[in-house]
Amino acid sequence: MENLLEVLLFYLFAGVACGGALGVALGRDIVRCLLSLVLTLGAVGGLFFTAGAALVGVIQILLYLGGTVVVLIFGVMLTSPHVQPQLETGLKEKVLAATVCMALFGILMGTGYWIFAHPLAESGSQVISAPAGGLSETEAVAASLLGLRVLPSEETRISKASPGFHCLLAFEVVSIHLLVVLVAAAYFARARRPRLPE
Amino acid sequence: MSSITFFHYFAVACFLFVTGLFCILSKRNVIAVLLGVELVLNATNLNLVALGRFPGWQPQLAHEGQVLALFVIVLAATEAALALGIALCFYSLHRAPDLDEAQDLKG
Amino acid sequence: MNSVVWLLLIAWLLPLASFATILLGGHRFSRLGWVAGLLATGSITASFLCSLAAAATWLWQNPPLMHAQSDHHEPLLNKPHNNLSPHPAAAEIPSAGSMRVLSGVDSFGNREGYFALKESDGRLNIAQRGELPYGTSRMAGGLPSSTLNRLNLQSHDRSAKSPPGAIVGDWYTVAEFGTLRMTLGYYVDSLTILMMLMVTLVATCIHVYSFGYMREELQDVVEDPEARVDNSAQPLQRPGRFARFYQFLSLFCFSMLGLVLANNLFMIFVFWELVGICSFLLIGFYLERPSAVRAATKAFVVNRVGDFGMMVGLAALWGAGGTLAFAESSKDPGLFSRARTVYEQAVTSSAVAQEKPAKVQEPSAPPGPPGLPHRLSYTLLVLGGLGVFCGCVGKSAQFPLHVWLPDAMEGPTPVSALIHAATMVAAGVYLVARFYPVLMPEVLLFVAMVGLTSAVMAATMALVAGEIKRVLAFSTVSQLGFMMFALGIGGWVAGIFHLLTHAFFKALLFLGAGSVIHATGTGEISRLGGLCRKMPWTAVTMLVGCLAIAGAGIPLVVGLSGFHSKDAIFAQASLLALKGSPVGRLFLALAAVAAFLTAFYMFRLWYLTFVGPSRQSHLLAHAHESPAIMIYPLVILSIFAVAVGWKIPGVGWGIPEILEQARPGVGLSGIMWRWWVLPPEAESHLPYVHKVASWVAFAAGVSGFLLATMIYGLRLLDAARLRAACGWICYVLERRYFIDELYERVFVRAALLLAKSAAFADKVLIDGCAHTLARLTHRAALAEEAIDRRVVDAGFNTLGHHLFQLGLLMRRVQTGFLRQYLMLALVGTIIIFVLAHLF
């Protein structure tokens, strides 16, 4: 039963995501593409939820749908203030791009299949829905950020921090980086009156 | 398909990835390219998260995927803001968000 | 050096100084030509005075024997010699050592005897003479004996005074090649003295005469009617060349005197060529006249032909004999003694072979320092003598090289007088005389034949000559032939004597002709006549000259100079004839014919020019006597023409006696065949010989004179009808026996053909090769340029172009489309995936 729900949810979200992606790809108007993207991002967030990564799913919805998309909407508004003729690429190009993309898709799928058809991959079917040791998933992520690894064993002890993956500092750096970038973007996007077209 | 395996997530991620690539490749509007980029990043995120769910032969890396996905989301936001700034510059320079106008690299 | 030699040296170099001064003076003399003339005349007069002083000194030191004192009109049979035992001691043959014994047929009626010869003063004298039974020598070999009859007539003077030897020395050594030496030196004996005197005196007279004759050259502009330029009617106008004339005359005098003084063949040859060049320059003096230029070239070329033979002879003598000098000196033995040695060896070996055929005498070692080549043999001596004589034939215009002398009359008359009558052409005769000791009897026979042929031939050609100077030219050839004939038959003194007298009267005749030409403007006899009224002095002096050349005089007593010298020649010829050889008789007859013809044509000339009606009266009307300056030399020369054959009053000797001092002593006479016997000249003075000679000469001369008088003087016979009667003979004579045409066809055309083929080869073949080579090189250069342009450049250009195109092609990848870049990246990724999967 749970399995069925999981599968159904998965397929639902996957379908919406793919449909939304196709809508982005094939949309004629930029706004339509944007809205399709919104749909896609939401679906992907849903996929995150079904994959058990609640934190990431929430962050996805928060940041992406609330931030990035808004930014994109503002971009659209700023760059296309008037109704403009559609910017279409030639059919030839689209066909070529589609061909290449499908080839890449085929290659990726083939590679993935070949990897995961390996007996070694069998063990990959192990599903870990909750980490052992009694920690919730979010706690486990936070522990990982600090460099603590939670081993999925019967032991409930938190192992020592394993060297190699202290990413909290990196996270901080990335935050500052984000700030800098925002400043730069604001600078780039400042209004230059004499240069703007009428 | 009795259960969802990693491969399902992987397939979806690949589809999203390829579609985003298609958007990048076949759109003339700058913002549309950015949409494509978002799609690609999301595909990557999905993959990472899926790997976090189905770690395979490295079970101790189970949550690393999510951590990495967080990073990617942050960086994607960063990059989106910056890319928008560039797009606005581009727009102000060429008066149209047409990527085909960016011919300066023409040799 | 001796004072005589010093004087002669000064006399020789004075004309050279005059020549150099005028030469270096250059254009300054073109306005002051008379200064140059004075300079030249002064120098030659001073030269004459020096020669005179030298002659006086010589004769004072070496007075010649008087004619009566020498015994050479007696056979030597009964006259004892100094240092000798009396004759005869037939059984006693002196031993060898300083004496050499010869036996053979002598010249007195085929008696056989022997001669013992003693050597003293470089000459062989008869020490003893004896008789052998008749037929001794003939029994020896049965062959005609070729022993020699040698008599030397110098030292039979009882006063035991030996004849003066020659003063020989070298002034300057030009070059030395090991033992071969080329020097400038002197050989002074009485022959030299007399020649110097004659040359300088005649030259002085002619220098003075030329002042008058060449007066028109003093002008700035001279008109020459005979040189037409561009076929215009205007005669050519040119500047006067008075100074140049005297310059050449001075050079000539210097050259001639050098030739006379020379003591070796090298110096002779140098001055030989120098006189040849002077002759060329002076014949072509009127150089705008093409006839003059042709004549000058002809003279030089014909002389060159003779000189070629001379060089062959010189080479033979120098190569085999080792020396070119005449007389002995400390350094080399000289040609004379060499020739004597060879001669004696030939004689001795043949004589001894006759008597004792078993005994062979070794040739003695040649004199002179060791190392000198002594390959001189009799044959080479003959060859050398013939070669040198070849040069003399050319220079003295003997047959067959006589063709240049008649044409050489294109030069001014003083030139003809000096060069082509008195001096230069006499140089050939002089050389024969000087070279006498080296000329073997075979050569002398050849000399005599050539001389006699020339004498007769030229005399015949002079019969029909129509111009004064032509007649005189042929006469010169004829008289030179006489001299050569005399030398060839053994009459050494006779030949030289005739040379000296001929110089005077021939110069006189030429100057008189010049006077006529100067007065009337022409020398054509057909336009002259009756000039003796208008030009008495010229007429009289020319008459003297004609008489002299004809040999006028009272036989056996006295006569003009030509009489005495011709007498001497005839004496020797009669001696030869009287000895019984038929060749000698033939020679005498021919000589008489030549003498007859001489008298005839000379008086023909005189009568036609001076006597009778004038053929062109306006010429006679305008004729006038020449100025005094031209008359004085005529008078002086006529005095000499009359008196030079006489003995000097008070001392009893004259030219022949002076010449006797210089008589060469070796090879003088020889017997080659039974019919060719060279008698000693002394015997020509025997009374019975002398009588024959005198009367023959007189008869020949008088008959010629009478015939001429009859035809041209008194006009008893019509000259025109005579001429018509022997028409073809006259035609042949007028065309000079067609010898000129023969030479033209045989030699000149061959030479021209050779020249033309050489020119053809050069122009067509060699130039063709050069042009073809140039053209090929040009084409090769063009082809190479084409290759360079089309292949190399094109290659590089194409390469560059294609590289550029490739670059352009590759540039198209950079489209500037960002999407395309991304696409390419993706495609690359796919490809990598595929490749990784496949491999």
Task: Provide a descriptive summary of the structure in words.
The complex is a heterotrimer of chains A (198), B (107) and C (839). Chain A has 198 residues and is mainly α. Chain A contains 7 helices and no strands. The termini of chain A are far apart. With 107 residues, chain B is mainly alpha-helical. Chain B has one domain: Helix Hairpins (Orthogonal Bundle). Chain B has 3 helices and no strands. Chain B is elongated. Chain C has helices spanning 3-25, 28-31, 33-61, 136-141, 190-213, 242-261, 265-283, 290-321, 334-355, 378-395, 404-407, 413-422, 424-434, 441-463, 468-488, 492-520, 536-550, 561-578, 582-610, 617-622, 628-643, 655-660, 687-713, 719-725, 727-734, 739-811, 818-838, and strands at 99-105, 112-120, 123-131, 167-177, 180-188, 222-228, 235-238, 553-554, 558-559, 671-673, 676-677. Chain C has a 3-stranded antiparallel β-sheet. Chain C has a two-stranded antiparallel ribbon with strand order 4-5. In chain C, strands 6-7 form a two-stranded antiparallel ribbon. The longest helix of chain C is centred in the C-terminal third of the chain and has 73 residues, at 739-811. Classes of the chains: A mainly alpha (198), B mainly alpha (107), C mainly alpha (839). The interface between A and B is large, with 96 and 80 residues.
